[in-house]
Structures are given as C-alpha cells and as structure tokens.
C-alpha cells in the first residue's frame, strides 16, 4: 500500500499501525501529534489505529508559548 508521510510517499506492507510506522521512522517520541487525513489521532489510539492505502499522515511537534 502507498501512504504519504509529511508529503513524502512511503510503500508499506499491511497491516501497519500508526505506532509501528512511527517507530520504523524513528519518530515515536514525546511531544508529537499525528493527523491522518487531516484528523488528529489521539496518542492512546496509535497502537490500534491501522494505516490504509492512500492515507496522508502529518506529524506535528507541540510548541509551548503564549
């Protein structure tokens, strides 16, 4: 299957969860948020949220300030 991660195409063998993909990309770290197809996925769902062909994944870093 083909997904897009931060606008870059990636070919994956299903099944693959958000957590598995982020771990493989060395991106599984504190302070990040993930959106799939413009919908934020709670961290508590990363272990069970499957990735599907054509998904667009965006990774965001939390920034504190005021």
Describe the structure.
Helix content is 11%, strand content 33%. The protein is mainly β. It has one domain: Ubiquitin-like (UB roll) (Roll). It has a five-stranded mixed beta sheet, with no helix packed on it. A hairpin with a 2-residue loop joins strand 3 and strand 4. The chain is globular.
Q: Please outline the major beta sheet.
A: 5 strands, mixed
List unreliable stretches of 5+ residues.
Answer: none
The shape, in one word, is: globular
At the first level of CATH, the class is: Alpha Beta
Predict the CATH topology.
Answer: Ubiquitin-like (UB roll)
CATH superfamily: Beta-grasp domain
Query: What class would the helix/strand composition place it in?
Result: mainly beta
Number of domains: 1
| The CATH architecture | Roll
Mean pLDDT: 93
Strand order of the largest sheet: 2-1-5-3-4
Computed Rg:
12 Å
Quantity of strands, as a count: 5
Identify the quaternary structure here. Answer: single chain
User: What is the distance, rounded to the nearest whole angstrom, between the alpha carbons of the first and last residues?
Assistant: 41 Å
The number of helical elements comes to 1
Please provide the ordered H/E string of secondary-structure elements. EEHEEE
Helical residues, percent = 10-25%
InterPro entries: Beta-grasp_dom_sf, Mopterin_synth/thiamin_S_b, Thi_S, ThiS/MoaD-like
Organism: Alishewanella jeotgali KCTC 22429
Pfam families: ThiS (PF02597)
Protein name: Sulfur carrier protein ThiS
